[in-house]
Amino acid sequence: MKLYHRFSTFFLISFISIQSFAQKNASEYFIDSLMNKMSLDEKIGQLNLAAVPDGAITGTEFSKDINQKIADGQMGGVFGTWNIMEIKAMQDIAVNKSRLHIPLLFGLDVIHGHKTIFPVPLGMSCSWDTALLRQVARISADEASSEGINWVFSPMVDISRDPRWGRVVEGAGEDPFLGSQIAKAIVEGYQQNFGANNTVMACVKHFALYGAVVGGREYNSVDMSPQQMYQYYLPPYKAAVDAGVGSIMTSFNDLNGLPSSGNKWLLSNLLRKQWKFKGFTVSDYSAVGELANHGLGDEKTISALALNAGTNMEMVGEHYLHTLKDLINEGKVSVQAVDNACRVILEAKYKLGLFQNPYLFINTERAAKEILTKAHKDFAQQVAEHSFVLLKNNPQVLPLQSKGTIAVIGPLADSKANMLGAWNAAGDTSNAITVLDGIKNFVGGKGTIIYRKGANITDDSLLKRRVNIFKNEISTDERTPEQMLEDATEAASKANVIVAVVGEAADMTGESASRTHIDIPESQRNLLKALKKTGKPLIAVLFNGRPLTLKWENDSCDAILDVWFGGTETGNAIADVLFGRYNPSGKITMSFPKDEGQIPLYYNRKNTGRYYDEKRDGLSSKFKSDYLDESNDPLFPFGYGLSYTTFLYGNIQLSNARPSGNEALKATIKITNTGKYAGEETVQLYITDPVARVTRSVEDLQGFKKVFLQSGESKDVTFTIIPENLKYYDYDLKYDWDAGDFIIRIGTNSRDTQSAKVKWSK
Ligand code: NOJ
Fold first, then answer.
1. Which residue among 151, 219, 315, 509 has the greatest number of ligand 1 atoms within 8 angstroms of its CB, and so is best to mutate?
2. What is the position in ligand 1's atom list of the atom closest to the CA of 153?
3. Separation of CA 379 and ligand 1 centre (Å)
4. Is 511 in the pocket of ligand 1 (CB under 6 A)?
5. To the nearest 5 percent, what fractions of the chain are helix, strand and coil?
6. CB distance 454 to 486 below 8 Å
7. Residue 248 host element (H or E)
C-alpha cells in the first residue's frame, strides 16, 4: 500500500473532482488538469516509446538509459519485455520517481497468443471462424495482461496478394471482406472491457498497405491507385477503427511518395477526419528515423514531418525527444501538435485504467494461474484443428487407421523449434507438441511408429544462416543427404503408410523473410521423390507460413494436409485430423499459385479486355491476357479446402429476382453431406457486378456461413443481401451501387459456385 502512496494522493485529488463531472467528461477533465501541470519536455516524453534491449528483438536500433528516462519523465511506454518483475520495476520508477507519476504503457508483440501459442494468423484465418478468433484474442489478452502487458501490437490486417512477402503469415490473407470481419473480432477480443485487469489495448497494423510492397520484397515501396486502396486494401484497417481499436501502428513502406510515418493524408486526413479515429498512432520500429533513409531530410525535418503528419508516438529512435523542443522554438512544430499527440496517449492510459491503478496488470499470482492452463491448451488445439486445410485426398487415404506401421518421416516431424511458427515473442518452443509426439500420443500401443528425419529442412547454406539468426530451426545432420535418404526410404518401405512432414522452417516467413522461390526446399523435395518410389501411400503434412508452389507435390502425393504452424498443440491437433477425430474444415485465404511467375495472383481479379479462359479459349489462343507457359489459374483457389466428407450444393433460390431499393434479398441454397463422415462446411457468397462505372473484380466475397452436417443430412443456408453488398468506389471515390444486373454466386470456394442472376432497381 505504501508503494502507491505518493501516486494515489496525487490522483485521488483529481478523482474526487472527477466525480463532480459528467461521466463522459471525466477523462477529458482529468487529462486537462494533468496536462496543465506538464512541462513541454514532459509532454514530449510521453511521445517516446522504448524497446527493452534484452527483450524480444524486433529491430536494429536499441533504446538506452531507459530507467533514467522514465524517472525524468521522458518515456510514455516501453515494449518488448514480459518479465513481470522488470515491468514492475519500471512502473515503480514512473510512479514514484517521475515528477508527475504518470504510469507507463507496456507493449508486446502478442501475435498469435502470448504463452499458449495458437496457429499463425494466416492459418487461423483459414478457420473463417470469427468467434474462435475473438476467443483467441481474449485468451491472449488474459495471459499477456497477467504478466504486466497492457498493450498488444496486434492485429496485423495488411491485405496481401503476394506470397513472396514473408509477412503474409501474420495476416488474414487476400480478401478485404474476410479480413475486415477478422480484424473486428480480434480487436473486440482484446479490448473486451476497458478498466478490467485482463483487457488490453489493441494496436492495428501496419497502416497502411504494407502488404502491397513491390515484388513482395520486405520494406519496399507501395504505389497504388486510390480505387485499389479503398476497395481492396483499406477495409480491414477501417473495420478495426470502427470496432474501436485504441491504437494504430504506421507501416514502414513508402506510400505513393510519402512513407506512412510522414504521410499526412494517411494519418490525418483519412484516419482522423474521414474515419474519425480517436486513439493514438505509433510509428513502427525506428520508422521515424528511417524517413531520412527514404530521402526526406535531416533529423529535424523528418521529426517535424512525422509529428505534423500525425504520428503521435515514436517507437525507438528518440528523434522526437531530441528535436521537438527546438522545432517548436523554430516554429516548425506547434505546441498544439505536441499537445494533441500527448493527449491521445494519456487518454489511452486513462482508458486502460492505469491512472486509477498503475499496477492493475501487475499481479504475480495471476500469471501463475492464467498461463498455459489446460483450458487454454485445449482451446489452442481446437483452433489448430480448425486452421488446417486438406488440399488433396485422392483416393480417400485419409483419415488413417491407428494401427499397422506408420512411417513418420521428415525434418519437421520432430522439431519443437519449428512448431510454433514465426513471431511468438513469449512463446516457448519447449512446450510445443511435435507431429511425432502427437501421433505417438494418439496411436499409443495400437500401432508401430517409425521415425526418420530423412533430410535437412534445407541444404542451402545461405538460407540456413539467415533463418537461424535467432534460433536453430534448421539443424544440419552429420550424415550426407544421400545417407539420410537411404535411411528414410529403407524405414518407410517397412511401413503401411508414410506421413511425410515437410515444408518451411518457422522463420522462413515473418518479418524480413521474403522469398523468390516459394517452393519446398530441394532437400525435402528429394526426400518426397525418394519416398514416392517406395510405392507406399504418401501423405504430406505441410508446414508453411505462406502459399507455396505445390504442383509436383499435388501430382505426386496421395494426400496433402496444410497445417501452417499450429502453435503449442500442433502435434496433437495434427494427429486428431490425420486419424479422423476431427474432420478438416479449413479453407485457404490466399490463392496458391501454380508458379511464382503468376504472382500477384488473387481471386478478385479484373476481367481485362482480353481475359484468357483455358476452357473457352483452348491452348492455341493468341492476343489474350495470358502466359505462353502457364495458365492463369491458381493451383488452389481462394476459399478452397476439402473435407473427409463431400458436400453437394443445390441451386440458389432467391426471395425475389427483381429486388428494388433497400430491399433485403434472400439467397438460399441447400447443402447436403453426401459422404460418410459428419463435417463442417464454410459456405461462401460472392457477388459479380458485370456492368459498372469503373472496372470491377470478377467477383467479391460478400458473406460466409459455417454449417455442420451429419452424414446424409441437408440444411438450407440463407444469405441476406442488401445494397451495401453491391457498393463500390467509383473513379471519384464515391461509394455507391448502380441499379442493374448482378450475379449471386454461392459455393464451396471462389471457383466452384452455383449462380443466379438478379436485376436490382433503385
Ligand atoms: C517491427 C514490426 O514491423 C512490427 O510489426 C512490430 O510490432 C514492431 N517491430 C515492434 O516489435
1. 315
2. 7
3. 27
4. yes
5. 35, 20, 45
6. no
7. strand 247-250
Which cell numbers in the block locate residue 225? 491507385
Q: Which secondary-structure segment (H or E) carries 573?
A: helix 570-578
pLDDT at position 8 is: 47
Among candidates 628, 631, 594, which has minimal Cα distance to 616?
A: 631
- CB–CB of 431/372 below 8 Å? yes
Residue 179: Cβ within 10 Å count:
29
User: Which SS3 state, helix, strand or coil, does residue 249 take?
Assistant: strand
Spatial separation of the C-alpha atoms in residues 548 and 127, rounded to whole Å: 19
- The question of whether 284 is a catalytic residue gets the answer yes
List the 280-282 sheet strands across, edge first: 280-282, 247-250, 201-207, 151-152, 105-108, 77-79, 48-51, 314-315
Q: Does ligand 1 come within 6 angstroms of the Cβ of 284?
A: yes
All cell numbers assigned to 12: 485521488
* Whether residue 109 has its Cβ less than 6 Å from ligand 1: yes
Give the Å distance between the CA of 284 and the centre of ligand 1: 6
Residues 404, 409: Cα–Cα separation, whole Å: 16
C-alpha 566/C-alpha 113 separation (Å) is 11
pTM value > 0.90:
yes
Q: Are residues 714 and 675 in contact, defined by beta-carbon separation less than 8 angstroms?
A: no
List Cβ neighbours of 540 (8 Å cut-off, separation of 6 or more).
500, 502, 528, 553, 557, 559, 560, 561
Cα 428 to the center of its chain, rounded Å: 20
Structural domains of the chain in order of their starting residue, each with its CATH number:
384-578 (3.40.50.1700), 645-760 (2.60.40.10)
Ligand 1 atom, smallest distance to 252 CA: 3
Give yes or no for residue 290 CB within 6 A of ligand 1.
no
Nearest to 206 by CA among 316, 106, 287: 287
Give Cα 157 distance to the centre of its chain.
6
pLDDT (0 to 100) of residue 24: 55
Q: Which residues of the chain have pLDDT under 50?
A: 1-23
Angle between helix 130-145 and 374-387 (nearest 10):
140
| Residue 553 CB–ligand 1 contact under 6 Å | no
Atom 11 in ligand 1: residue holding the nearest Cα: 58
Ligand 1 pocket, mutate which of 284, 286, 290, 314 (most atoms under 8 A from CB) = 284
Separation CA 52–CA 270 (nearest Å): 32
Which is catalytic among the residues 142, 158, 284, 626? 284
Strand partners, 700: 687
User: Could you give the CA distance from residue 563 to residue 119 in angstroms, rounded to a whole number?
Assistant: 9
Ligand 1 center to 292 CA (angstroms)? 19
Residue 433 DSSP code: P
Reduced to 3 states (helix: H, G, I; strand: E, B; else coil), residue 400 is: coil
All residues at 6 or more sequence positions from 338 whose CB lies less than 8 Å from its CB, including other chains: 40, 43, 44, 47, 307, 324, 328
Q: List C-alpha distances in Å: 660 to 69, 654, 739, 760.
A: 63, 14, 9, 5
C-alpha–C-alpha distance, residues 156 and 138, integer Å = 16
Q: How many whole angstroms from 169 Cα to the centroid of ligand 1?
A: 14
Distance set, CA 389 to CA 125, 175, 250, 392, 709 (Å): 11, 17, 32, 9, 18
Determine the residue type at 145. S
Looking at residue 582, its amino acid is Y
